[in-house]
Amino acid sequence: MSNESSFDQARAVIPGGVNSPVRAFRSVGGAPRFMVSGRGPYITDVEGREYVDLVCSWGPLLLGHAHPAVLDAVHEAVSRGLSFGASTPAETELAEAVIARLAPVTRPLPERAAAPTAPDDVPDPARSPSAAPVVEQLRLVSTGTEATMTAIRLARGVTGRPLVVKFSGHYHGHSDGLLADAGSGLATLALPASAGVPAEIAGQTLVLPYNDREAVRAAFAEFGPRIAAIIVEAAAANMGVVAPSPGFNAFLADTAHAAGALLIVDEVLTGFRVSPAGWLGLEPVAADIVTFGKVIGGGMPLAGLGARREIMEHLAPIGPVYQAGTLSGNPVAVAAGLATLRAADAAVYARVDEVAGVISSAVSEALDAAGVEHAVSRAGNLFSIQFQSTLATDYAGAQRQDAFRYGPFFHAMLDAGVSLPPSAYEAWFVSAAHDDAAVSRVLEALPAAARAAASAQP
Ligand SMILES: *Cc1c(COP(=O)(O)O)cnc(C)c1O
Known about the structure:
- By secondary structure, the protein is an alpha/beta fold.
- The chain contains 14 helices and 17 strands.
- Helix 7 (248-258) links the parallel strand 11 (227-233) and strand 12.
């Protein structure tokens, strides 16, 4: 069996031969590799070729492929049955683990009317807290798409308002309202970004340029009382990596709150990857709803959303906002997620950070040596390469790069046994399983790939 024949066979029965579009190699050309196994930092295709994997299932595999503790947990769960359609104790354990990790991320509490106190009274922080955790409860779902879709329904249910603000180039899954493109100007309602999305639904979304405070102010000036929420990737990593400018996320929290709206921080990609508490662990802001996915399932279909209790209790069965799922909190997926979070200790994060640093610097050196204009875009341990000398801060800027250089670069790496994301507009993912041998293979492949990028033609 070859990759070509697998792809041909797949194309007959699966649209485009893939079950998610970015797997299709459309932007880099050629037949996608059909994979049969993964172990540690490596992935093997149907032809028996092994690659160092810098996709890591698009983020979930923080520990690498087939981590022994995760496999053991999954095997143990499988042996007890695949799905019960009833609650299991492990779901509570996972909620507790997530809440514990997010505990340092707090929001200020409104000041209580001060009780008369003696002048020498020392405020007791335990008795009258001034801050409370952002995440007090968690609801599990199966995909990041469901998590953000539910977060938005919840925000609308809590506020009684219709509109949602999102940012251009930010991806929050494929629910209708989030597949929206910016309209013709700032502070205009959005247009559908996909066939099949009614204009009426896209028109409930405002799409703004990322990192643009003026655009956010203008949107709130025009539509403030009708805005239910801002949704933002904690750090943008679905247009390549574009970090939030310093203070931008906090600005969003302040702006939303001043208008009576909520801030939804989408940590589906960054959560439990960039730090034990995700991006919010690096840059705490007073988020109202946080969405999780990818690493939380350790490679199984699992995602979730968390918030303070008073928000979460708007969800069914307690509250009026409906949400459900036959396989939500599936015991096998929960076992994989729990085992992943339990294994993801400080050493894991230190290694992922280190590997990201080594590989991103080496890419930059190789491109320098080949005379290719570029900038390394980093957000925590996430990174990607922009083929332009000035780092973009938004989607329009990211699209100005010489993206035509990426295809030849990608294929040279693939030929040398390194699997990169098949698009210039995706983050590169590493894992704690990327040992020195795997990293060396990446470094050895870089000079030829950089030369391929240098000689690429638009
Ligand atoms: C991947 C991703 C999603 C969607 O998650 P799925 O599990 O693919 O539905 C949502 N938001 C962000 C930031 C993502 O990276």
